Amino acid sequence: MKILITTDWYEPVINGVVTSVVNLSKELKKRGHEVKILTLSRNHHTYIDGDVIYVASIGAGKIYPEARLKMPVIKAVIDRLIEWNPDIIHSQCEFSTFFMAKKIADETQTPIVHTYHTVYEDYTHYFSPNAAWGRKVVQKLTRLLSARVDAMIAPSSKIEDVLDRYDVECPVCVIPSGIDPDKFGKYIGTGSRHEIRQQYGIDDDQTVLLYVGRLAKEKNVEEILRCQKRVCRFGTVLMIVGDGPYRADIEQQVNELGIADSVIFTGMIAPDKVAEYYQAGDFFVSASTSETQGLTYVEALAAGIPLLCKEDPCLLNVVDPGRNGWEFTDEEGFENALVKWFDMNERDRACLRTFAMRSTEKFSTRTFADRVEDLYMSVCESREAVLRAC
Question: Which pTM does this prediction carry?
Fold first, then answer.
């Protein structure tokens, strides 16, 4: 098949959408499919790099950090993709590149599958002074989007429920995005744990609570800080891996809580080093309820790191309490889970880490691509049947 993937976000940006697109495209190419990616460049220039077409864009950081909007598109770029005549278009974002995807689809009679990566209700603070009004806008725009695509992919049952509540018009299929477990598992048992801890002055026997991700308001890192304030008497260290627009606020809260001695900010880490950084942790921690799936959760499990995350529907079928981690609802629940860990002997802790790693098999890139490929085939067959009937 000839597959066109459209996305507003792509490398060198690091987020869940980019990870999903990169992993999917690599797996599809392994299977012999011809894949092209249409995305926005990080500057005012349009250019092509291999199978990736970068369209000129301008910054729109006032709407959302690192967001960009397309500039007037060079007609030849779209014409070239129309002439290529893809069999399926898979859109990953609802804004700039979706409109290009729709134009190509209309010209070629190609079906569109769309992955709904983001619960925009949780991001209304970026674009609307009124949360209720923002939610209504999101719901209306999502329904309009659903009328213009042939099917939607929900990365989790949580998103399926959201789309059902929005009363979308197209079929919805739950397909979790996949990761490469070997990428994160290969550092287990290596010297990475000791080396990274040594770099930041952490003893090998200290319990490290690891957060990996963007530092943004919707990630609710403040709650993790309050949890660390509660449990730091046990000698825990909170390591925050990543950067973002909310970092200064988080650093201020660390100082106000009086926990600066037990919190480490690594800043942005190179993508090819992140897999090693997971090894520095004993638990992956998060209090975010804005995740659609949370690929970092699965990455941590693949690295053999149990989860200690705030209860959220996106963790359904991810956290198996007591076997690969725990969920918490408040600071007391966070502490209780840690106490269970401290009460374990080393054999039981090793079992927790082993099961964490094994529990990611259903999130592999292979399984991900299998299910997406099946959906592509189904959508194409349905479109062909409609065209024949006409």
Answer: 0.85
